[in-house]
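Mods, move this if it's the wrong board.
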Amino acid sequence: MRFRIGLLIAVSLLFFFDLPRQMVYFVLSPLYAPLTKLELLIKDVERMREEMDFAFQMSPFERRVFVNSPVYDNPYAPRYIVLPFGTLDGVSYGDPLVVISCVAGKVIRASSRNSVAITINNPSFSVPVYDNRSGLLSRVVGGNPPYMEHLLGQDIREGDTLYTSGLEGLFPEGLIVGMVGDTLFEEGGIVRREVIPACDLSKLNRFHIIRRGWD
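Not the wrong board. Structure tokens:
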């Protein structure tokens, strides 16, 4: 008991006086950078594990091409991405571009060695979706920001999560597209709402291309 009280008093005095605090700082500060790098490494490993877990959950008729360090047309809100894989790697027109289970875009052109994809920030992008809470079907159209439209009075609320419905046959069902945001405008019984993408493309440099129908 006396030892615990003495230890408590010693620790209290250590942080009460300026000199001991400085000594502790100089002793521990060299450890800050390695600990920060270790934390980033742990996060990177966790992300790779999530990617592998999602890959194992895919249908046997789906294959994935891992894409590292793609080239953007705009690093902050990219509309086009040049990918270092092409038809020789099994990539073809319409293949979905995803980050783990989140929709990022789709391939619009593929040559033998590389391909070009449009992102969810591109006005030419669109994908059929369903509202996970209400089950209502809609379509997300690309842009900055992306948006969706629905009839006035339909049960679509801010904060609802939107998933791919799989109806067009390109994107498999159940990929996360984004979250319903603010109302942009209402006109003629049509409500247009902002869609907040599930992934921030400006902070990513790793993607997967889903190849459908490949053995």
